[in-house]
Amino acid sequence: MIIDGHVHLSAELEEGAFRALPLDAEQLLKLMQGPFSIAGQNRVVDRALVQPPISATRLGHPLDQHRYVAAQVKAHPQRLVGCFTANPLLDVAETVEALRELVERGGFRALKLHPTGHAYLPFRLRDRLDPLVAEAGRLGIPVLVHQGDPPFGHPSQVAPLIEAFPRVPFILAHFATQRLVMADEAIYVARKNPNVYLETGWGTLPRIKEGLAALGPGRLVFGSDCPVQEMGSQLRVLEVLAWDPPLGARLAPEGVEQIMGDNLAALLGVGEAR
Q1: What is the average per-residue pLDDT within 236-241?
Q2: Domain 3-268 annotated CATH 3.90.950.20
Q3: Is 40 left (phi over 0), alpha (psi -120 to 50) or beta?
Q4: Which pLDDT belongs to residue 274?
Q5: Arithmetic mean of pLDDT, 214-224
Q6: How far apart are CA 272 and CA 274, in angstroms?
Q7: In which band, very low, low, confident or very high, does the pLDDT at 271 lie, cut at 50, 70 and 90?
Q8: CB 122 within 8 A of CB 113
Protein backbone atom coordinates (compact mmCIF):
# COMPACT_ATOMS: atom_id res chain seq x y z
CA MET A 1 0.00 0.00 0.00
CA ILE A 2 1.34 3.43 -0.96
CA ILE A 3 0.14 6.50 0.91
CA ASP A 4 1.28 9.98 -0.04
CA GLY A 5 1.33 11.76 3.30
CA HIS A 6 1.64 15.33 2.01
CA VAL A 7 -0.59 16.75 -0.75
CA HIS A 8 -2.10 20.23 -1.10
CA LEU A 9 -5.57 20.22 -2.66
CA SER A 10 -7.41 23.23 -4.08
CA ALA A 11 -9.74 24.26 -6.89
CA GLU A 12 -8.55 27.87 -7.08
CA LEU A 13 -5.33 29.80 -7.53
CA GLU A 14 -3.72 30.23 -4.12
CA GLU A 15 -3.92 33.76 -2.85
CA GLY A 16 -1.17 35.42 -0.84
CA ALA A 17 2.57 35.13 -1.18
CA PHE A 18 2.82 31.66 -2.73
CA ARG A 19 0.40 32.13 -5.66
CA ALA A 20 0.57 28.40 -6.36
CA LEU A 21 -1.49 26.93 -9.18
CA PRO A 22 -4.29 24.66 -7.95
CA LEU A 23 -4.38 20.89 -7.92
CA ASP A 24 -8.01 19.79 -7.80
CA ALA A 25 -9.34 16.38 -6.80
CA GLU A 26 -9.87 15.18 -10.37
CA GLN A 27 -6.27 15.96 -11.27
CA LEU A 28 -4.96 14.40 -8.08
CA LEU A 29 -6.85 11.14 -8.52
CA LYS A 30 -5.48 10.87 -12.04
CA LEU A 31 -1.93 11.48 -10.81
CA MET A 32 -2.33 8.85 -8.13
CA GLN A 33 -3.02 6.21 -10.78
CA GLY A 34 0.52 6.60 -12.15
CA PRO A 35 1.42 3.94 -12.89
CA PHE A 36 4.66 4.17 -10.91
CA SER A 37 7.27 1.52 -11.65
CA ILE A 38 8.67 0.24 -8.34
CA ALA A 39 10.89 -2.84 -8.22
CA GLY A 40 9.65 -3.86 -11.65
CA GLN A 41 5.95 -3.59 -10.78
CA ASN A 42 3.43 -0.96 -11.82
CA ARG A 43 1.96 0.60 -8.67
CA VAL A 44 -0.56 3.31 -7.83
CA VAL A 45 -0.72 5.68 -4.88
CA ASP A 46 -3.59 4.10 -2.95
CA ARG A 47 -4.35 7.02 -0.67
CA ALA A 48 -3.34 10.64 -0.23
CA LEU A 49 -3.38 12.76 2.92
CA VAL A 50 -4.75 16.07 1.64
CA GLN A 51 -4.69 19.56 3.10
CA PRO A 52 -5.53 23.05 1.80
CA PRO A 53 -2.86 25.47 0.56
CA ILE A 54 -1.22 27.30 3.46
CA SER A 55 -2.30 30.81 2.40
CA ALA A 56 -5.94 29.75 2.65
CA THR A 57 -5.49 28.99 6.35
CA ARG A 58 -4.21 32.39 7.40
CA LEU A 59 -7.56 34.16 7.82
CA GLY A 60 -11.22 33.26 8.33
CA HIS A 61 -12.94 30.43 10.16
CA PRO A 62 -11.05 27.09 10.21
CA LEU A 63 -14.04 25.17 8.86
CA ASP A 64 -14.38 27.56 5.91
CA GLN A 65 -10.67 27.12 5.17
CA HIS A 66 -11.17 23.37 4.78
CA ARG A 67 -14.51 23.16 2.93
CA TYR A 68 -13.13 22.08 -0.45
CA VAL A 69 -10.80 19.48 1.08
CA ALA A 70 -13.61 18.17 3.31
CA ALA A 71 -15.98 17.85 0.35
CA GLN A 72 -13.44 15.87 -1.65
CA VAL A 73 -12.60 13.58 1.26
CA LYS A 74 -16.31 12.87 1.64
CA ALA A 75 -16.65 12.21 -2.09
CA HIS A 76 -13.60 9.89 -2.26
CA PRO A 77 -13.29 8.23 1.16
CA GLN A 78 -11.34 5.24 -0.16
CA ARG A 79 -8.64 7.41 -1.76
CA LEU A 80 -8.42 10.71 0.17
CA VAL A 81 -7.82 11.34 3.86
CA GLY A 82 -8.10 14.84 5.32
CA CYS A 83 -5.36 16.74 7.14
CA PHE A 84 -6.45 19.74 9.22
CA THR A 85 -4.08 22.72 8.99
CA ALA A 86 -4.26 24.72 12.21
CA ASN A 87 -3.26 28.35 12.47
CA PRO A 88 -2.66 28.85 16.22
CA LEU A 89 -2.73 32.64 15.80
CA LEU A 90 -6.48 32.44 15.16
CA ASP A 91 -9.07 31.73 17.84
CA VAL A 92 -7.81 28.59 19.57
CA ALA A 93 -11.18 27.39 20.86
CA GLU A 94 -12.74 27.68 17.38
CA THR A 95 -9.75 25.89 15.87
CA VAL A 96 -9.92 23.01 18.35
CA GLU A 97 -13.67 22.69 17.75
CA ALA A 98 -13.18 22.62 13.97
CA LEU A 99 -10.43 20.01 14.27
CA ARG A 100 -12.67 17.84 16.43
CA GLU A 101 -15.62 18.12 14.03
CA LEU A 102 -13.58 17.26 10.93
CA VAL A 103 -11.89 14.29 12.59
CA GLU A 104 -15.01 12.86 14.20
CA ARG A 105 -17.37 13.46 11.28
CA GLY A 106 -15.35 14.48 8.23
CA GLY A 107 -12.74 11.81 7.49
CA PHE A 108 -9.76 13.87 8.69
CA ARG A 109 -6.94 11.92 10.33
CA ALA A 110 -4.07 14.34 10.97
CA LEU A 111 -3.23 17.80 12.31
CA LYS A 112 -0.79 20.04 10.41
CA LEU A 113 1.27 22.86 11.92
CA HIS A 114 3.09 25.30 9.62
CA PRO A 115 5.25 27.66 11.70
CA THR A 116 6.76 29.23 8.58
CA GLY A 117 3.49 29.84 6.75
CA HIS A 118 1.85 31.30 9.85
CA ALA A 119 5.02 33.02 11.14
CA TYR A 120 5.55 31.86 14.70
CA LEU A 121 8.22 30.27 16.87
CA PRO A 122 6.73 27.05 18.26
CA PHE A 123 8.52 27.24 21.61
CA ARG A 124 7.10 30.73 22.22
CA LEU A 125 3.51 29.84 21.36
CA ARG A 126 2.97 26.91 23.69
CA ASP A 127 -0.15 28.42 25.26
CA ARG A 128 -1.83 28.20 21.85
CA LEU A 129 -0.20 25.04 20.49
CA ASP A 130 -0.64 22.83 23.55
CA PRO A 131 -4.47 22.76 23.34
CA LEU A 132 -4.27 21.77 19.67
CA VAL A 133 -1.78 18.97 20.24
CA ALA A 134 -3.67 17.79 23.32
CA GLU A 135 -6.80 17.49 21.18
CA ALA A 136 -4.85 15.58 18.53
CA GLY A 137 -3.78 13.19 21.26
CA ARG A 138 -7.34 12.76 22.47
CA LEU A 139 -8.49 12.08 18.91
CA GLY A 140 -5.64 9.63 18.28
CA ILE A 141 -4.15 11.41 15.26
CA PRO A 142 -0.56 12.39 14.35
CA VAL A 143 0.78 15.94 14.13
CA LEU A 144 2.58 16.88 10.90
CA VAL A 145 4.97 19.85 11.25
CA HIS A 146 6.46 21.82 8.36
CA GLN A 147 10.25 21.91 8.63
CA GLY A 148 13.34 22.96 6.76
CA ASP A 149 13.46 26.75 6.44
CA PRO A 150 14.49 29.62 8.70
CA PRO A 151 13.59 31.34 10.92
CA PHE A 152 10.62 29.20 12.04
CA GLY A 153 11.20 25.74 10.56
CA HIS A 154 13.98 24.24 12.70
CA PRO A 155 13.43 20.83 14.32
CA SER A 156 14.97 22.03 17.59
CA GLN A 157 12.27 24.72 17.85
CA VAL A 158 9.50 22.14 17.97
CA ALA A 159 11.39 19.69 20.22
CA PRO A 160 9.95 21.08 23.50
CA LEU A 161 6.41 20.55 22.17
CA ILE A 162 7.30 17.02 21.08
CA GLU A 163 8.78 16.23 24.48
CA ALA A 164 5.69 17.56 26.27
CA PHE A 165 3.43 15.12 24.40
CA PRO A 166 5.36 11.83 24.24
CA ARG A 167 2.27 9.79 23.33
CA VAL A 168 1.36 11.94 20.32
CA PRO A 169 3.07 10.92 17.05
CA PHE A 170 4.85 13.82 15.35
CA ILE A 171 5.92 13.78 11.69
CA LEU A 172 8.67 16.23 10.72
CA ALA A 173 7.88 17.20 7.14
CA HIS A 174 10.26 17.44 4.17
CA PHE A 175 13.07 15.67 6.08
CA ALA A 176 13.74 19.24 7.29
CA THR A 177 15.42 20.01 3.97
CA GLN A 178 13.03 22.28 2.10
CA ARG A 179 15.18 25.45 1.95
CA LEU A 180 18.11 24.58 4.18
CA VAL A 181 19.39 21.10 4.96
CA MET A 182 18.47 20.51 8.60
CA ALA A 183 18.30 16.73 8.21
CA ASP A 184 20.95 16.09 10.88
CA GLU A 185 18.92 18.10 13.37
CA ALA A 186 15.71 16.28 12.42
CA ILE A 187 17.40 12.89 12.80
CA TYR A 188 18.78 13.95 16.19
CA VAL A 189 15.34 15.05 17.44
CA ALA A 190 13.84 11.78 16.20
CA ARG A 191 16.55 9.69 17.89
CA LYS A 192 15.83 11.43 21.18
CA ASN A 193 12.05 11.10 20.87
CA PRO A 194 10.51 7.77 19.82
CA ASN A 195 7.22 9.50 18.95
CA VAL A 196 8.89 11.32 16.01
CA TYR A 197 8.75 10.18 12.38
CA LEU A 198 10.53 11.78 9.43
CA GLU A 199 8.72 12.45 6.16
CA THR A 200 10.93 11.58 3.20
CA GLY A 201 9.72 14.14 0.64
CA TRP A 202 12.38 16.70 -0.37
CA GLY A 203 15.01 14.49 1.24
CA THR A 204 17.94 13.49 -0.96
CA LEU A 205 19.12 9.90 -1.12
CA PRO A 206 22.21 10.41 1.11
CA ARG A 207 20.18 12.11 3.85
CA ILE A 208 17.41 9.49 3.75
CA LYS A 209 19.99 6.71 3.99
CA GLU A 210 21.39 8.43 7.08
CA GLY A 211 17.90 8.61 8.57
CA LEU A 212 17.31 4.96 7.74
CA ALA A 213 20.58 3.94 9.41
CA ALA A 214 19.75 5.94 12.53
CA LEU A 215 16.06 5.15 12.90
CA GLY A 216 15.21 2.11 10.79
CA PRO A 217 12.34 1.87 8.28
CA GLY A 218 9.67 2.00 10.97
CA ARG A 219 10.24 5.71 11.61
CA LEU A 220 10.15 7.03 8.04
CA VAL A 221 7.01 7.92 6.04
CA PHE A 222 6.48 8.93 2.44
CA GLY A 223 5.10 12.34 1.50
CA SER A 224 5.65 14.10 -1.82
CA ASP A 225 4.44 17.69 -1.20
CA CYS A 226 2.50 17.42 -4.47
CA PRO A 227 1.85 19.60 -6.51
CA VAL A 228 5.08 21.39 -5.58
CA GLN A 229 6.78 18.10 -6.35
CA GLU A 230 5.77 15.10 -8.43
CA MET A 231 4.92 11.87 -6.62
CA GLY A 232 7.00 9.55 -8.77
CA SER A 233 10.20 11.50 -8.28
CA GLN A 234 9.86 11.15 -4.51
CA LEU A 235 8.99 7.45 -4.67
CA ARG A 236 12.05 6.78 -6.81
CA VAL A 237 14.37 7.66 -3.93
CA LEU A 238 12.64 5.08 -1.74
CA GLU A 239 12.91 2.40 -4.42
CA VAL A 240 16.68 2.90 -4.55
CA LEU A 241 16.96 2.09 -0.83
CA ALA A 242 16.42 -1.57 -1.77
CA TRP A 243 19.43 -1.59 -4.10
CA ASP A 244 22.80 -2.91 -3.06
CA PRO A 245 25.41 -0.44 -1.77
CA PRO A 246 26.97 1.93 -2.59
CA LEU A 247 23.82 3.46 -4.10
CA GLY A 248 21.27 1.64 -2.02
CA ALA A 249 21.04 0.34 1.55
CA ARG A 250 19.94 -3.23 0.79
CA LEU A 251 16.62 -2.52 2.49
CA ALA A 252 14.29 -5.52 2.44
CA PRO A 253 11.08 -5.20 0.38
CA GLU A 254 8.96 -5.11 3.53
CA GLY A 255 11.04 -2.17 4.77
CA VAL A 256 10.36 -0.25 1.56
CA GLU A 257 6.66 -1.01 1.96
CA GLN A 258 6.77 0.30 5.53
CA ILE A 259 8.13 3.64 4.36
CA MET A 260 5.89 3.94 1.29
CA GLY A 261 2.68 3.44 3.20
CA ASP A 262 2.43 0.86 5.97
CA ASN A 263 3.77 3.15 8.71
CA LEU A 264 1.44 5.96 7.74
CA ALA A 265 -1.52 3.59 7.45
CA ALA A 266 -0.99 2.65 11.09
CA LEU A 267 -0.59 6.28 12.20
CA LEU A 268 -3.72 7.40 10.33
CA GLY A 269 -5.76 4.34 11.20
CA VAL A 270 -6.67 3.52 7.60
CA GLY A 271 -6.86 0.11 5.97
CA GLU A 272 -6.47 -1.19 2.47
CA ALA A 273 -7.75 1.13 -0.25
CA ARG A 274 -9.24 -1.64 -2.38
Answers
A1: 97
A2: no
A3: left
A4: 38
A5: 98
A6: 6
A7: confident
A8: yes
Q: Place 103 in a pLDDT band, splitting at 50, 70 and 90.
A: very high
Identify any residues that bridge with 129 across adjacent strands, giving them in sequence order: none
Give the model confidence (pLDDT) of 37-71 as tens digits: 999 999 999 999 999 999 999 999 999 999 999 99
Q: Which residues contact 53 (CB under 8 A, 6 or more apart)?
A: 8, 10, 14, 18, 20, 22
Task: Give the domain ranges of the chain.
Answer: 3-268
